[in-house]
Amino acid sequence: xxxAIISWDYFTEKFPVKVRSIxxxxxxxxxxxxxxxxxxxxxxxxxxxxxxxxxxxxxxxxYDSFALLNNAVLDFAKKFPLATHTDEEGTPKxxxxxxxxxxxxxxxxxxSTDLHSHWPALWSYCYCxxxxxxxxxxxxxxxxxxxxxxxxxxxxxxxxxxxxHEVYKQECDHDRIVVSGNIYTxx
Length: 187
Known about the structure:
The protein is an alpha+beta fold. Helices cover 19% and strands 33% of the residues. It has helices at residues 26-42, 59-62, 64-77; strands spanning 18-21, 50-51, 53-54, 97-107, 112-116, 123-130, 138-142, 145-149, 155-160, 165-167, 176-185. Strand 7 (138-142) and strand 8 form a beta hairpin. The model has no long low-confidence stretch (mean pLDDT 88). It comes from marine metagenome.
C-alpha cells in the first residue's frame, strides 16, 4: 500500500526583487573604477557556490569603495521594509540595517555560480560594476518558472536573502564584474 501524498503548500507568497539603476552618475563611474581595482587587487577568496574569481567576504572593512557602495545599498533597502514594526502605541519604528558581508566577483567566459541562498541574512544584493547587455543574468528559479534579471553597469538588484538564485555560464569573452552582499537587522 502506498502512502497518500500530502501537499503542505496552501499558497505561494511572492516576494519583492527590487532593481535600481544608478548609471550615468559621474561619481558612480569613479566608484566603479575603484571597485574593479579593489576586486582585482584583493586576491582570491575561498571556494564557494561561485565558480569564478571571488574576493573575501569582508571587503567593506578593507576598501572605502565597498563601504561607499554599501551605504548606497542600505539607503535603497531601507525604502522597502520586508515587514513593519511598531511600538506599543502603534507608532511605526524603523529597523536599523547593516551589511555584514560584501565581496567582489569576476565572471570570465565559462564561469558560473551554483544555485544557493543567503539565509539567515534579511536582504541580499548584487551591484553591477561592469557588464554588457549580453552578459549572463541573475536567475531566480521559482515555482512559476525561472525569472531573470539582466545586469547593467550601475544597477543594484535587491532581494530577500532566502530566495534561491544562480548564475549560468558567462558566454561573453570579457569579464562580468559584480559586488554582492548581505544585509541584516542591526538590533
